[in-house]
């Protein structure tokens, strides 16, 4: 009988790993809030257009630069050390950013923060998914990305409160506070064990088994769940070791792996190009286009929007264990398309007619749109890739996800202010078209993973390869009803 005990380390796991994306949220949303703070604008000579775009884009540029290092470090030295190294780099970058007095120093600091956060960001969800109890893996991994809003929430309200300080501390204080999540990360990482899957792959099976017994079996060495889990992990990883291809070559060796690559790239771009990249990072500019220009009102709306986003994202994270991933992607994509299209129409009407009703409707639609985005993409952004990637591809796959996401973010933050300045509301149409494209890809290429263990998801993609091979020979696969292992049953229920 499998134990129902949950070790206290899982309680430590949440604040430790979630704090990484809190810092990410702080860095991303910080510039959004600072654009409404007069002291910040005076210090950096009211940046706009291409200069503002590059100040924003410097953070994802740093993240892109560190991408080649994250997977090799994670696979060679382990998940914990990679997160620790990234967190230390982030603290140094935040200190530099808070002390900046010139645009060049501010940009350089954001590049350093971006460099460090990729190391931690690509590895954090991997450690959660590989270490968490099967019963909690889905929700814990889904909650990981919701902490983006938790960090943004802190920054939004701190910026709102500090904006009236009347000195440079109005922007230096919220900037400096970004270091707190990384500091917590550095402290809590020492309370966590290493990934048992990484240990098994490194032929340290005894250590891995002891971790599973302690944290998944409540200390019982005869626990049925631990025995089934250890056997499944060991068999799967031994089979993966027999594959000679490595690195990026793995993603082009079979139809299933090419589909995995398509999923990663689609999710990465969708995470930034679904309209959220326009609304979240340039909220002050967008509010200005609908007639809301006061500093206090803009920062208040920013705080309220972030609070709503966090609540809806957490709700969606808890739903991932009950609602199919595919259903959340497809229905959420349709809802995003509908609401962002309506938002575009309202912004267009307001800009053409100055209609107060259109402006109020646009503001309301921003809140509704984010609810649909949070249901579709926020909790699934790291959960789904962690599920579909086998162990040997997991670190590299997450690096591809994060680097592609940061390239899309770099494009957004460099081009968005220029697009808004030059063509106004018409720039929204670019994102309307992309949402339609990504939703189509969700429908045709994103398989369901609900009810499968981390190792069991591979069977779904194995069928894709088998079907392709059979069709190439002019044959068809018989329809087989899959069973579930004990581990899969526990996860699903």
From TrEMBL:
<feature type="transmembrane region" description="Helical">
    <location>
        <begin position="427"/>
        <end position="446"/>
    </location>
</feature>
<dbReference type="GO" id="GO:0016020">
    <property type="term" value="C:membrane"/>
</dbReference>
<protein>
    <recommendedName>
        <fullName>Major facilitator superfamily (MFS) profile domain-containing protein</fullName>
    </recommendedName>
</protein>
<feature type="domain" description="Major facilitator superfamily (MFS) profile">
    <location>
        <begin position="1"/>
        <end position="450"/>
    </location>
</feature>
<feature type="transmembrane region" description="Helical">
    <location>
        <begin position="261"/>
        <end position="283"/>
    </location>
</feature>
<feature type="transmembrane region" description="Helical">
    <location>
        <begin position="140"/>
        <end position="163"/>
    </location>
</feature>
<comment type="similarity">
    <text>Belongs to the major facilitator superfamily. Sugar transporter (TC 2.A.1.1) family.</text>
</comment>
<keyword id="KW-0812">Transmembrane</keyword>
<dbReference type="InterPro" id="IPR020846">
    <property type="entry name" value="MFS_dom"/>
</dbReference>
<keyword id="KW-0472">Membrane</keyword>
<feature type="transmembrane region" description="Helical">
    <location>
        <begin position="81"/>
        <end position="100"/>
    </location>
</feature>
<feature type="transmembrane region" description="Helical">
    <location>
        <begin position="50"/>
        <end position="69"/>
    </location>
</feature>
<feature type="transmembrane region" description="Helical">
    <location>
        <begin position="362"/>
        <end position="383"/>
    </location>
</feature>
<feature type="transmembrane region" description="Helical">
    <location>
        <begin position="328"/>
        <end position="350"/>
    </location>
</feature>
<feature type="transmembrane region" description="Helical">
    <location>
        <begin position="169"/>
        <end position="192"/>
    </location>
</feature>
<dbReference type="GO" id="GO:0005351">
    <property type="term" value="F:carbohydrate:proton symporter activity"/>
</dbReference>
<dbReference type="Pfam" id="PF00083">
    <property type="entry name" value="Sugar_tr"/>
</dbReference>
<keyword id="KW-0813">Transport</keyword>
<dbReference type="InterPro" id="IPR003663">
    <property type="entry name" value="Sugar/inositol_transpt"/>
</dbReference>
<dbReference type="InterPro" id="IPR005828">
    <property type="entry name" value="MFS_sugar_transport-like"/>
</dbReference>
<feature type="transmembrane region" description="Helical">
    <location>
        <begin position="106"/>
        <end position="128"/>
    </location>
</feature>
<dbReference type="InterPro" id="IPR005829">
    <property type="entry name" value="Sugar_transporter_CS"/>
</dbReference>
<dbReference type="InterPro" id="IPR050360">
    <property type="entry name" value="MFS_Sugar_Transporters"/>
</dbReference>
<keyword id="KW-1133">Transmembrane helix</keyword>
<dbReference type="InterPro" id="IPR036259">
    <property type="entry name" value="MFS_trans_sf"/>
</dbReference>
<feature type="transmembrane region" description="Helical">
    <location>
        <begin position="303"/>
        <end position="321"/>
    </location>
</feature>
């Amino acid at each position: 009988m499998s134990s129902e005990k949950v070790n206290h380390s899982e309680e430590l796991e949440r604040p430790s790993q979630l704090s990484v994306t809190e810092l990410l949220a702080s860095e991303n949303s910080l510039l959004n809030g600072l654009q409404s703070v007069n002291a910040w604008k005076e210090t950096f000579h009211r940046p706009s257009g291409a200069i503002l775009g590059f100040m924003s884009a410097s953070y994802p540029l740093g993240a892109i630069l560190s991408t080649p290092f994250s997977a090799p470090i994670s696979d060679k030295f382990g998940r914990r050390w990679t997160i620790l190294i990234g967190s230390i780099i982030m603290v140094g970058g935040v200190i530099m950013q808070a002390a900046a007095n010139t645009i060049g120093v501010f940009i350089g600091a954001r590049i350093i923060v971006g460099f460090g956060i990729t190391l931690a960001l690509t590895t954090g969800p991997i450690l959660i998914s590989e270490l968490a109890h099967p019963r909690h893996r889905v929700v814990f991994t889904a909650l990981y990305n919701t902490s983006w809003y938790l960090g943004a929430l802190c920054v939004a309200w701190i910026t709102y409160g500090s904006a009236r300080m009347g000195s440079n501390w109005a922007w230096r204080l919220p900037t400096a506070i970004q270091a707190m999540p990384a500091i917590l990360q550095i402290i809590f990482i020492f309370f966590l064990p290493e990934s048992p899957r990484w240990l098994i792959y490194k032929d340290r099976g005894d250590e891995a088994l002891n971790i599973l017994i302690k944290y998944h079996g409540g200390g019982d060495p005869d626990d049925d769940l631990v025995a089934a889990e250890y056997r499944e992990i060991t068999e799967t990883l031994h089979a993966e070791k027999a594959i000679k291809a490595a690195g990026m070559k793995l993603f082009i060796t079979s139809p299933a792996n090419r589909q995995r690559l398509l999923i990663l790239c689609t999710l990465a771009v969708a995470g930034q190009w679904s309209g959220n990249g326009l609304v979240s990072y340039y909220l002050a500019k967008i509010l200005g286009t609908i007639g809301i220009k006061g500093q206090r009102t803009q920062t208040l709306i920013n705080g309220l929007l972030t609070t709503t986003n966090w609540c809806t994202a957490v709700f969606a994270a808890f739903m991932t264990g009950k609602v199919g991933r595919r259903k959340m992607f497809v229905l959420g994509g349709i809802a995003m398309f509908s609401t962002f299209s309506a938002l575009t129409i309202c912004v267009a009407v307001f800009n053409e007619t100055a209609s107060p009703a259109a402006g109020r409707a646009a503001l309301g639609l921003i809140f509704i749109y984010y609810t649909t985005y949070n249901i579709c993409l926020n909790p699934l952004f790291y959960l789904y890739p962690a599920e579909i990637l086998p162990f040997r591809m997991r670190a590299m796959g997450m690096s591809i996800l994060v680097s592609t996401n940061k390239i899309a973010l770099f494009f957004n933050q460099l081009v968005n202010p220029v697009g808004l300045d030059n063509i106004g509301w018409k720039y929204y149409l670019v994102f309307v078209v992309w949402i339609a494209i990504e939703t189509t890809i969700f429908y045709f290429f994103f398989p369901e993973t609900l009810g499968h263990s981390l190792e069991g998801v591979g069977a779904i993609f194995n069928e894709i390869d088998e079907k392709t091979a059979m069709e190439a020979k002019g044959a068809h696969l018989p329809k087989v009803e899959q069973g579930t292992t004990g581990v899969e049953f526990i996860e699903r229920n």
